[in-house]
Specification:
This protein is an alpha+beta fold. The chain is built from nine helices and five strands. The protein has a five-stranded antiparallel sheet.
Length: 290
């Protein structure tokens, strides 16, 4: 074997090692997006209470207690509404969150179930009733992978006036499936790390596209919310597409919609894994050519 071919083989091995390192970086970034949300929990302005919302809908294996105990109690209580009055459309749509459970922040199930996923997207709503000193960009709601945090109840109340369903209605099954989706991602990356057979690149590219999946699903549900307005709305608003990215206006309210910390972590995973795929592709081509 000539010195040139030896040098070429050494270069290929170095690039292959770099691809593996980038794969590990991408996997760690995905893991961070799943469990590091505990460091980015929303803290309300001074003088405002931190709300406990029920948007998290885990599988029973991740629950502190069996699902349905509170769901049955609340479901029965909402059959006729408070005071025996017939419930309206908003009450019925709110039932989506009745089978949720409150999680203990320190339980292993909370981390395994994705309760501490990082905030991916930030939506805020401006109105004259919210003081700029406390909410300079309006009341915020953070879209995590499995739940919503921030001023969720307040945002739901405002959305109610324009006929939008409570946020808890959005993607309940997909949010519940996130732990299994991430498990599939990590298994796929393990295959990508060692495997070089047919369609090997799919095992690296699939998990890499997580930010694309999120934006696509987020956009779909925004469309759904804007085009399935309830008849009980106080404002006469035609179906509309809420702003996915940037600033907008709905009725008298200003809106802002931008990515936040978790999305940039997902972008790190995307870049690292995409580079890992491209580098490994080059190495495999060099080896095939001799």
């Amino acid at each position: 074997m000539t010195n040139q071919s030896l040098s070429s083989n050494e270069d290929s091995l170095k690039r292959l090692r770099l691809s593996k390192i980038l794969t590990i970086v991408g996997a760690l970034a995905l893991l961070a997006s799943y469990v590091m949300g505990v460091f980015f929990e929303y803290q309300p302005p001074e003088g405002y209470e931190l709300e406990i919302n029920q948007s998290y809908q885990p599988f029973s294996m991740f629950s502190v207690k069996p699902l349905g105990e509170e769901g049955e109690e609340h479901g029965n209580a909402h059959e006729e509404g408070e005071g025996g009055e017939e419930e309206d459309e908003y009450d019925r749509s709110s039932r989506w969150d009745m089978e949720t459970v409150k999680m203990d922040d320190k339980t292993l199930g909370a981390f395994l179930g994705g309760y501490h996923s990082m905030p991916i997207w930030l939506v805020s709503l401006e109105s004259a009733q919210y003081p700029k000193s406390a909410f300079p960009y309006g009341i915020p709601v953070y879209f995590n992978l499995t739940r919503f945090t921030g001023e969720v109840t307040e945002m739901n109340t405002i959305n109610h006036y324009i006929g939008m369903h409570p946020m808890e209605v959005g993607a309940p099954f997909v949010r519940k499936m996130v732990p299994l989706i991430y498990l599939a991602f990590f298994a796929s990356l393990a295959v990508f790390y060692f495997y070089s057979g047919p369609v090997w690149w799919l095992f690296g590219l699939g998990p890499a596209l997580m930010p694309v999946y999120f934006v696509g699903w987020y956009s779909y549900w925004l469309y759904w919310f804007g085009h399935n307005l309830m008849e009980t709305r106080a404002f006469d608003i035609k179906p509309f597409m809420p702003t996915v990215f940037g600033d907008g206006k709905v009725a008298q309210f200003g809106t802002h919609s931008y990515p936040t910390t978790g999305f940039y972590v997902l972008l790190i995973a995307f870049i690292a894994l995409l580079l890992a795929v491209l580098i490994k592709r080059r190495v495999i081509r060099e080896m095939d050519q001799g």
